[in-house]
Design brief:
Blueprint: E1 2-6, H1 13-24, E2 27-30, H2 31-44, H3 52-60, H4 75-84, H5 88-102, E3 108-112, H6 115-119, E4 125-130, H7 133-144, H8 149-165, E5 178-181, H9 187-202
Parallel strand pairs: 1-3, 1-4, 2-3, 4-5
The structure holds 2'-deoxycytidine-5'-monophosphate (DC).
Length: 203
């Protein structure tokens, strides 16, 4: 059983995907963290995330034990992840790791941008979690504390544009995905809606 959860930054897909994994007793993979690890490795090597060679070198020598690194969650690393994610060789270097994970028993929930379209096109359940850029910016601003709303909104819009306009595996809902707009939902309601969708699809 594979549940694919895709969507733009700060739409709530991580929270929803984790909750689905807990609810059904499945394994969970935050695929954005893989791209963030690549972005962080490039930054730590004092290279520009737009340096394609540095990004490919970091992706092909990725140490997947870096999931717990606190620096992964910063906005700078999120932006770097979105930049390295444009490079096709970076994406292909991370593909088998994601597909191997998806085969875990009794099931796996993966969240990202291209799970339902590229990584697991045969996923049993596909959710596309979204919300308006303004709602996502305001949630992200609360999470980050001090940052200005205007800056966070601009960063979210830039990331949406980069993630959805890239040539390889752009952010877009799979044709058979169920769209879940969380703009008007709190966390509990969004999780409840996602579980109901997954239950319907699993039958
Ligand atoms: O979900 P996130 O914000 O942690 O992801 C960071 C960036 O990584 C995102 O802006 C684009 C990239 N990404 C991707 O291209 N494909 C994925 N499956 C997951 C993330």
């Amino acid at each position: 059983m594979i549940i694919a959860v895709d969507g733009p930054a700060a739409a709530g897909k991580g929270t929803i995907a984790r909750a689905l994994a807990t609810h059904f007793g499945y394994h969970f993979l935050d695929t954005g963290a893989l791209y963030r690890m690549v972005g962080l490795a490039v930054i730590r090597n004092a290279r520009d995330p737009a340096d394609t060679r540095a990004a490919i070198a970091a992706a092909t020598s990725l140490d997947p034990s870096g999931f717990a690194d606190r620096d992964l969650r910063t906005e700078a690393v999120g932006a770097a992840a979105s930049i390295v994610a444009v490079v096709p060789e970076v994406r292909s270097a991370l593909l088998s790791l994601q597909r191997d994970f998806a085969r875990k028993q009794p099931g796996a929930v993966l969240d990202g941008r291209d799970i339902g379209t590229v990584v697991c096109p045969d996923a049993d359940v596909k959710l596309y979690v979204t919300a308006s850029p303004e709602v996502r910016a305001s949630r992200r601003q609360k999470e980050l504390g001090a940052a200005s709303y205007a800056d966070v909104l601009a960063e979210i819009k830039a990331r949406d544009l980069r993630d959805s306009q890239r040539v390889t595996a752009p952010l877009l809902p799979a044709k058979d995905a169920v769209i879940l707009d969380t703009s008007e939902l709190d966390i509990a309601a969004a999780v409840e809606a996602a579980i109901a969708i997954a239950d319907r699809r699993r039958r």
